[in-house]
Design goal:
Shape of chain B: elongated
Number of strands of chain A: 55
Membrane topology (chain A): Multi-pass membrane protein
Radius of gyration of chain A: 32 Å
Distance between the termini of chain B: 125 Å
Number of helices of chain B: 3
CATH topology of the largest domain in chain A: Maltoporin, Chain A
Radius of gyration of chain B: 30 Å
Largest sheet of chain B: 5 strands, mixed
Largest interface: A-B, 50 and 53 residues
Pfam families (chain B): DUF5007 (PF16398)
Protein name (chain B): DUF5007 domain-containing protein
Oligomer: heterodimer
CATH architecture of the largest domain in chain A: Beta Barrel
Order of helices and strands of chain B: HEEEEEHEHEEEEEEEEEEEEEE
Distance between the termini of chain A: 38 Å
Shape of chain A: globular
Helix content of chain B: 10-25%
Number of domains of chain A: 4
Largest sheet of chain A: 22 strands, antiparallel, barrel
Strand content of chain B: 35-45%
Main location (chain A): membrane
Strand content of chain A: over 45%
Structural class of chain A: mainly beta
Organism (chain B): Pedobacter frigiditerrae
Number of helices of chain A: 14
Amino acid sequence: METNRFKQNVFPMKYFYTIAFLLILGCQSKTFAQQKITVTGVVYDGSTKSKQTLPGATVLVDGKVVAQTGSEGSYRVTVNSDAVLTFSYIGFQPVREKVNNRTVINVTLTESSDTKLKEVTITSGYQTKTKTLNTSSAVTISGKELQGQPAGDVISLLQGKVPGLNIQNNTGAPGFRGSVTIRGISNINVSGEGNSSFLTPTSPLYVIDGVPVDDNADYSYGFQPAGPGVSPASQIPPEEIEDITVLKDAAATALYGSRGAYGVILITTKRGNSKVPVIRYSGSAFLSTVPQLRSVIGGKDERLLRIAQILGNDTSAYNAIDKVNNTPFLSDSLNAYYNNSTDWQSYFYRPTVNQTHNVNISGGDMRFNYKVALGVIDQSGIQQNTGYTRYNLNMNMGYQPSDKFKLVGSLYNSIQKQQTGSGNGLQNEGVATGGSSSSLLPAPSLYSSVNSVLGALTTDNDSKVLNTTATVNADYEVLKNFKIGSYLSYTGVSSVKDNFSPAALNENQSQYYTYNDRSTTLYNRNQLSYFYSLKEKGEDAHNFSLFAFSELRSSFFKADAILNQQGVNDQLRGPLTNVTSYISSLGGTVGYTDLRTIAFAGAFSYNYKQKYVVDFNYRIDGLSSSGPNSGYKKNPAISVKWNFNKEQFLSKLKWLDYGDFRLSYGSNITPNGGIYDAYGKYYGGENYNNSKSVILDTSLLPNLSLEPTKATTYNAGFDLGLFNNRFSLAFDTYYKQTDNILKNKDLSATTSFGGISDTQISNVNYGWEFMVTGRPLNSSSPFKLSLTGTLAINREVLAQLPDGLRERIYDDIAAQDQDTYYRLGLNSLSNYLYNTKGVYATNRQVPVDPLTGLPYRVGAKNILNYFRAGDPIFTDLDGNYVLDENDKVIAGNSQPQITGGFNTLLQYKSWSLEINTSFTLQRDILNNSLASQFANFGNPTSMGNLVPLSQYNVWAKPGDVAAYGNPLDFIRASIINPFRYSQTLFQEDGSYLKLNSVKVYYTLPQNFTSKYGMNRVSVNATASNLGFITNYSGPNPENVTTLGRDYPGGYPLAKQFAFGLNIEF
Amino acid sequence: MKNIKYTLQIGLALLGSVGLFSSCKKNLPDARLSIGNDSQFTQYVYKPVLGRNTLFSNNFQFGSSSRPLDFKIVNMRTFTGEPAPELTAFYPVMVWKQAYDGTEKSIAEIDAKRALENHQLFEIRPHSGEFLMWAAANSNQIKAQPDSGYVFDVEMSNSGGRKYYQNLRLLPFKERPYEPSNLDPIIGQGPNVSVSPSGVNITGERGQPLNAGTDVRVVFKRNGNGNSLTFKFSDTLSNPIDPNKFAATDWANLVHGFNMVKTDKYVKFDAAYPIPLSTYPTKYTTLSGSQARVVFRFNRQAFGNVLQQCFVALNFNIYQQGDWEITFQFLRDKPKFDND
């Protein structure tokens, strides 16, 4: 077992097959010399949808390599006529073919399915293990499943494929990422107000080829308008990805310690593995089309509706006529300025044609391999003036001069450019206000009154992110089974954002916002590993392995921004300016972090004949952001597994491929806050006794025992494979407790400090996850069908609030008044709304105060304040016959609770068809767009777009049983506020089933393509984001904020139709 | 047999893991409501006037307690600590079943919107903490000021716990059956016999404008237990003035009464009590709806050939049912109805 040492490797499965193959060959006895013939043929890759050829596959006779396939997968050998040829390739099942005097033998190698579990490897905790020995909850998605669908952010393609990984692509803005959470939310803090409220993101930690990349840092989300919002994970194009592993429980993530509390996603990129250099090109052109937008009334209909509304509902007929006559856009219908039917949304949205190209050259074998990949994606957003361009040049190289030493180096470079129009990318206020303008106004021009449109169209917003990551990894086997290794990685990211707003928008003086940041990360990990086996009856029975490492990370981030006002003209955009004062330049450092972490970790693993597996992990972390009194953090993890199919008594069951139970417990942390939270902020004051004084900023009291956020997970799992891998099932149930969630707490003025950063919030997620795969067709059938279904049920409970509070309300100070209610024992993010129970059909339905004889009312005892027929029925919770703040109720959960998806792959010869769907159930959406459109009826003399009433069940006359109240009663609209945002009427069920993508692949016949010097050509057509099955009344139940608010400024998700071409030379 | 044994083991392992995870849920806090320390009554002394429906609103600050809350009056006692059965017993009171809006066409229609129900005379609204006193409470049963009244406690509770507010005071005033009132609130006796009208714009026969405060007075008088309201006018010698002389009066919309009888001595309506029935603003009330408003008008040609729009107006409430008579007495001078 010389080769055991390679277990620690990045691609150990390569070696497994080699070993297995060598072992098989070892059993061969002898061959008979016969007449020699020449055999030719082609080796195909049966696992690809398009049946690619396989360059670099070895052809063996009697265990000796006699040939290797060329760039087109073809080979030519001269062997005995009765020889047995064995075709092997790393990661594939070897195929043995008897020659029997044939001269042409074409072979298709497949990834062996019946041994899938046993040989599939899982990387977790920087170690790679076979799945049999993996005790934790992890799911690996092959990079093949992510091909053919152009995307700026590769993670969005995982939607519905991994149970427990909840991806909501809540923005269609190119280059931005949706929200990604593993096993529920880990932070309950809400910031912002109204439609811009957002939940503090808790994206998992991304580990790209062994190097952690933090995604929660800085301005990478785009909520904060300060910087560009480009996800660090989006620098890897989908075409370069070998596989993605999602680690869900703490036993798997334990060794990622100081930032693993939100889960870990491992991304492995492709390596060169062909002796003959191969050039692969894959590219696609894709059309992004504008999805269904909101429906509005246009032109004359809008005017007539408004006039009819005023005449029918005003206090008196004379007043109504006066009102119409005093409103030029209603009365002056012949005025060209008002006589329009402008579809405002059309000025913002357009279909675009985009493209992506990737070229890579790769080659090599185990000893030396290399890959250089060049990629570009150029995507124009369907919203005007938005777009995303990424160029990347990724290289990796592996060199193994001897069996004992290995060196791997890689370099990732990317340039990402982004245009976000006048918004911050995720949301666009300008589009929201412009798109909801009255249709009577003329189309946008410099002289139009709708400046937001002009703003969205003419603002220059350019962001650029340069990202360079260099990694070197060396491994050396000092003694047998004892290895030491070291990782060193440096990441440098610099971002700039320039936002130029022309003079026409800013009172004839242009405005120029410039931002730049610099972020560097130095990462070093030194590790050692040891493996030891005790034999029992000649086989390895007791297997021990020990793994230890130290980890050092230093990251620095600084962002500066300046707002130059009073530009001379639109042409001068340089580094301005003669600003009137420093204050008006609004410049300064807007973000600064300097974080050091150090960690020591160890892992011990034991298994008995791979039947019983026990893992212990222990990690000690020191964080510079924690308070000095909080000390080093210790995170233990323990997990056990019982592979019961290896038990003697079950060995008779031929239909049982594998089966196991897993149990795990562990904890993880993630840093909280910045250095100021723990140590305070100091600045220089006036002289005192001739020396400078130093003053502590009293806005924040230093919290000397600031703790990092800690996640503790219990996990129980169950895996089963049946009937020769035709059916497999993975089930997990978990309990995840997140403690020490950071929250700023106000302090009493007597302390002389404004507040303190405090970590006293906890929440708990528990849930169940299922993943079922079926391959119902016979393996000999020309059709291959694979069906996968995932389902994750997540329940989240708030477990602790600061200072023993049992509940808290996050008060939304915006007009939307959509408060968030935190109550222990409930889901953390409950909407706190007025409960709407329908519409009063008649006046008699309005409840009456038995004492005063007065009907239910809003506010004062004015005659207009009493509810009447056509008004919404709001619950009077406190029973005082007056609707007020105290009548709000806890309603709904803004977070998705059930997620999953169905994926189908059907293959027939050189055709393959893939259909991906995903679903989200039990999620409540606040339809703020509809609410604002209805509310526009409340003011018929001001301009704003109107919703076509015929599409909604609206109260029109006494006796009508309706869902929506009377929108036409504008006199009382400002008092009753029947279409207030904060009511359950606009809280709708956001469940949906989404058709993510349909992909069709076809591989052109090789005898045709080889005429043109191409080895393999396949084409694919992909349609993505095709549509939804949903009860939601808005355009898209997924395209809402993380707090479930549908907002007209949201960036719609484009429908995408791609045509792709893959060529291999 | 052996297989069965292992099946059992597998089953047990499964059950065990399910048990493990269901037991984790036990440690989670239950979703109960909470009682905040900052929930407080903003008013501890309540002084209703007997004989009227009185509502004390905005008297409780919810603070951080979660809604809905339950309120209960407990331990109602006299100031000396004796029990107060008159406030814990149930009495028939008139409650509104439908909203009064001033469009009713008869007393029967109004009465159809009301019904008798048994209530305690002093109640707390069960979820809002508002106090209310029913009109059925009278000073024969209830200790009114100058007595020291009653003391009581309030229990506030929800699923998160309970909290007691102690020693709230109820200090009712004696009945004042009409407003504006000439009766002293505490002793219930009248230092005056009359009140002033709300507005007067009338010139006397002797050529001087009449002053609302001193020259014209209004006397309320209850003649029986019926359901009527009579308006009378009398001159300086207490001789009746013909109501028809107030020719510009909008008799049909004067009060929410029915079956108007107008003679040369009085004008009489059948009316439902109290007047006004509620504070809902109608054409019979002031703008706020809190009082009924009657305006008796006539027009005359004044000196210099100008039109003088004369009126005498009264904003009033009558809380007690009966045959009420309101007399406008012109003390100093008769109104001048003739043209100059």
